[in-house]
Amino acid sequence: MRDGRLRHVTGTVRLEPVDERNLEPLLSVAVAEAEPDDVMPPVDAPAGWSHARREAFRDYYRTGMAGLDGPTHTAMYAVLVGGEVLGMIRMTRRAEPGTVETGIWLGRSARGQGVGAAALRELLDLAAAAGMHTVVAETTRDNAGAVSVLRRCGAKLIEDGDAVRAEISLDAIPPAL
């Protein structure tokens, strides 16, 4: 959203590892188009995008800069379209061999335009290239956008009350080239 108007997102979706170069643009999108609890773990700080929350955002995203082999076993990627940062997608190693968990958030103006599904497909390629066999995600039944993206990317959905666990077998789907 720019100047209070929704924009139509066009162009190829690509992923770029989160680094110091794209961290501030990522924070800008989060502040303008997302709630803190949607883009980072909860922190004990004043509500909204306070200075303390902005610093916590930076600290949290820096933890993923070391990648899957780093201390948090997490690789974070800025989601870009036309060179503009629109959100983030990540993968984190799980205890099960060859398995990573994914999570994504997009700024409000990029939602519902196919960006999430395209970003997830790109992440599936990166996971396969890293030797992974399975990508999992957890969401809730009322998160229709996430459920739709997961379904469109071939996930097997397992519902348990309001919780939804998604499993994507990388051995069963060919990576997009």
From TrEMBL:
Domain N-acetyltransferase: 13-177
GO molecular function: acyltransferase activity, transferring groups other than amino-acyl groups
Source domain of life: Bacteria
Keywords, alphabetical: Acyltransferase, Transferase
Keyword Ion transport annotated: no
Record-linked InterPro entries: Acyl_CoA_acyltransferase, GNAT_dom
UniProt keyword Amino-acid biosynthesis, yes or no: no
UniProt-recorded name of the protein: Protein N-acetyltransferase, RimJ/RimL family
Source organism (scientific name): Micromonospora carbonacea
Lineage start: Bacteria, Bacillati, Actinomycetota, Actinomycetes, Micromonosporales
